[in-house]
Amino acid sequence: MKYEIIGNIVPAVECTLNTGESMFTQSGGMIWQSEGIEMTTNTKGGGLKSLGRLLAGESIFLANYTSKVDGAAIAFGSTVSGKLVPVNVSNTEMICQKGAFLCAESSVKLEITFTRKLGAGLFGGEGFVLQKITGSGMAFLEADGDVVEKNLAPGESIKVDTGNVVAFESSVKYDIETVKGLKNVLLGGEGLFLTKLTGPGRVVLQTQNFNDFANKIIAMIPKNN
């Protein structure tokens, strides 16, 4: 499989497949394809894994696209303005927030994983369930706004506003820290909690929290009396 990321504002990834090669995506991820590609829909992994995807806020069914000829092309697109992040799953396992996964080769496994600590699950902004991508091959994640990557050394930590984490390697510890100081909590405008990520490992961040952006738009919509 060969791929090319196209566009800068709302990017897409166009994958060129040879006979027998496959890609899968969440429902609605495909935006164009050439002749010679066959689509099937299934739960990919059975009922338990599909239930896990439902808990993670994703669709139960996955769309699978298999090339029947050499050189067939298929493209998968972002849902909002941002960037696409290619991940070679053969080299690393990644934990990603719900909604970040876009598409992957059929050799990649997508499954749920649970946060290790109760506090992280309750206040992390993503609930108890995150998604884990393992196996081999390429996967593609979508981020809101621009992408910032950090490579944390062992014991090195970074605190991130809730909702700005895209993904991190499974070697990175994930926890939630309360903002200190009553005045900061009441007047700081940043909420009560920060996500704390501790190395070693790669961390992928996004500069925009789309949920916060959407809430600001909703707040500006005139309300009928």
List keywords for this structure.
single chain, 225 residues, mainly beta, Double-stranded beta-helix, six-stranded antiparallel beta sheet, 4 helices, 19 strands, 14% helix, 48% strand
Structure description:
The chain has a single domain (2-219), classed as 4-Layer Sandwich (Double-stranded beta-helix), CATH 3.60.160.10. Helices cover 14% and strands 48% of the residues. The protein is built from four helices and 19 strands. A hairpin with a 5-residue loop joins strand 1 (2-6) and strand 2. The strands form four sheets. A six-stranded antiparallel beta sheet has the order 5-6-3-10-13-8, with no helix packed on it. The longest helix has 11 residues, at 210-220. With 225 residues, it is mainly β. Mean pLDDT is 83; it is low at 183-189.
Low-confidence segments: 183-189
Distance between the termini: 56 Å
Mean pLDDT: 83
Q: Which strand order do you get reading across the main beta sheet?
A: 5-6-3-10-13-8
Question: From the alpha-carbon coordinates, what is the Rg to the nearest angstrom?
Answer: 19 Å
Helicity range of the residues? Answer: 10-25%
Order of helix and strand elements from N to C terminus: EEEEEHEEEEEEHEEEEEEHEEH
Number of domains: 1
The CATH superfamily label reads: Mitochondrial biogenesis AIM24
CATH class: Alpha Beta
The tally of helices reads: 4
Number of strands: 19
Which shape, going by the Cα principal axes?
A: globular
CATH fold-type name:
Double-stranded beta-helix
**Major sheet size, sense and barrel closure:** 6 strands, antiparallel
CATH-scheme architecture = 4-Layer Sandwich
Strand content: over 45%
